Amino acid sequence: MSLSICIPWSGNDQAVEDTLVSVLENRPENAQILVVHYGQYDDPYDLAGEVEFVESTDPQLANQLNTGLTHATGEIFHPLVPGATVRHGWTNEPVAWLNADPDLASVSPLVVEAENSDRVVTAGVAYSAGGGRRELVSGRAIGSKQVNKTRPLGPSWRAGFFRSEDVLDLGGWDATVGSQADVDLSLALRADELDCELSTKSVIHFSARPLADAGFRAGRDRQRLFLRHRGAGARALFAHPIAVAVEFAVSLPNWTAWTGLMGRCAGLLEVSRQRSHQRQPLQSAIGGGGPSDAAHERRVA
Q1: Which tens digit of pLDDT belongs to each residue from 231-283?
Q2: Fewest 10 Å CB contacts: which of 3, 141, 182, 244?
Q3: Distance CA 165, CA 69 (A)
Q4: 3-class SS letters over the chain
Q5: Could you read off the pLDDT of 86-108 as tens digits, one per residue?
Q6: Which of 37, 31, 38 is nearest to 5 (CA)?
């Protein structure tokens, strides 16, 4: 299966260039490399012959990934956030797995600290009954039992491998849930009975600050996600207030504890909108048609 690697511009030229150099030095054969930017990256090293630079109309990570996805020619789409560096052969196992299993929609690589490659940053994400996004085995040693037994819901926003047609069919990453977009997409894929696996042989080194995940917007995004995916059921209704209370207590005495709670309240006002939320397919910008028929035919088969 063909592969498209997408690096979204993060506002940090050095981080983009470090990731891009790493990919070019270890480039898989025939892989398409995309750099999606917000009109602020001018290709100082004249790489246009090796890399496709695509301009996005929005600086948000989710929308930059969607722009890359619609311009991707590969059957597998591999987002790689600036700050990540790779080694030779890091794509081999995920590509082989996606090629072999039609029910597999995504593969999470093992993301480790750039400064300490024995320590895990994330092995993918999970979602709790209370509506919480969680990075799996963060801080664990790379060879621990917990890492080897991990079964992620989906890849984190830092890096992942996805079957392009499945993500296009579900409308890509949703910017309205902010940094929760990775979990949102993974829950949508799981609802379609499409799986994710962890590849411990696909190791990505990561050195960058995390996305801002505190304050009003973060609280609102978390509440939107909960209402969209876990807004009913006795277990969720019991676990959710506890999760919110713990989130608030852990954030104290920082003022973001209060703004985050205000964001949660604002999100509650959208209960009807989120319960009725429907994902709309993205159209490929290069193929002229949508992926929906092919994706649905493969699922039925």
Answers
A1: 556 677 788 888 889 889 988 888 889 999 999 999 989 988 888 888 999 98
A2: 141
A3: 10
A4: CCEEEEEECCCCHHHHHHHHHHHHHCCCCCCEEEEEECCCCCCCCCCCCCCEEEECCCCCHHHHHHHHHHCCCCCEEEEECCCEECCCCCCHHHHHHHHHCCCEEEEEEEEEECCCCCEEEECCEEECCCCCEEECCCCCECCCHHHHCCCCCECCCCECEEEHHHHHHCCCCCHHHHHHHHHHHHHHHHHCCCEEEEEEEEEEEECCCCCCCCCHHHHHHHHHHHHHHHCCCHHHHHHHHHHHHHHHHHHCCCCHHHHHHHHHHHHHCCHHHHHCCCCCCCCCCCCCCCCHHHHHHHHHC
A5: 999 999 999 999 999 999 999 99
A6: 31
**Location of structure tokens 């319960």:** 275
Residue count (the chain): 301
Residue of 208, 164, 170, 201 lying closest to 186 (CA atoms): 170
How far is 138 from 123, CA to CA, in rounded Å?
Answer: 7
Separation CA 23–CA 192 (nearest Å): 32
Q: What are phi and psi of 145, to 5 degrees?
A: -60, -35
In terms of Cα–Cα distance, which of 222, 224, 204, 205 is closest to 213?
222
